[in-house]
Amino acid sequence: MTPFSSANEKEGLDKAICDFVDRHQKRILLQHAKRGNVNGLKNFMDVFLETNQLIFLWYRRRALKASKAVSKIMKNICIVAVEDDLFDFPAAYLTTLIKMQKGNLKLLAETLVSYEVPGHLRAALLLLQIIRWEDDGKTKKSPIVYLENMFEKMASTLKPLSLNDVDSKQVGRALYEYLMIPDTEKKEWLAYL
């Protein structure tokens, strides 16, 4: 049973959510990725987190299909840290930042850690894993197992910054900002990192 009174209501909500996410990806996330200004990092991460939360929340409420939710969160991850031909944009935000901060990568890495960027990226991968597991009914495993290609591309981007060693505490802090996931479920999923 769905929480919607009609298929039209569900379809309208699906469209509104996707339009909202697309608009924020285009107007905010991609603009930051093009400019590569580190001063916009807080705003960028706020939009990244909020759009991921919105997508996941409405996936859980059955307004978004799993495939659509995965695609939208995956695009968010790519805009942050993955050079991929799957989506049509010039460069990932972190790639642009690295190019612009070439002489001061240590300071850039410290700034990214202060905003929990590595933890948020791994938490977003974990959201993808949750959706895929729930949709396919697969055995729970680490996101690295099911999303190996995405994980490797993300690791490649983070390598110049030496930010690939993300522990469960960092991911946990990021994941706890996703208020719509019960604490017991968060703890359970963190065990699969």
Q: Can you walk me through this structure?
A:
The chain is an all-alpha fold and 193 residues long. The protein has one domain. The chain has helices at 7-35, 41-60, 66-81, 93-100, 105-114, 117-136, 143-146, 148-158, 168-175, 183-190. Helix 1 runs antiparallel to helix 2. The longest helix is centred in the N-terminal third of the chain and has 29 residues, at 7-35. The mean pLDDT is 85.
Low-pLDDT regions: none
Report the β-strand fraction as a percent range.
under 5%
How many domains make up the coordinates?
1
What's the tally of helices? Answer: 10
Shape: globular
Distance between the termini: 33 Å
Q: Structural class of the secondary structure composition?
A: mainly alpha
Largest sheet: none
CA radius of gyration is: 16 Å
One letter per element, helices H and strands E, the order comes to HHHHHHHHHH
Q: Can you count the beta strands?
A: 0
Please summarize what this structure is.
The chain has 193 residues and is mostly helical. 69% of the residues lie in helices and 0% in strands. α3 (66-81) packs antiparallel against α6.
Layout of strands and helices, then pairs:
Blueprint: H1 7-35, H2 41-60, H3 66-81, H4 93-100, H5 105-114, H6 117-136, H7 143-146, H8 148-158, H9 168-175, H10 183-190
Using brief descriptors, characterize the structure shown.
193 residues, 69% helix, single chain, mainly alpha
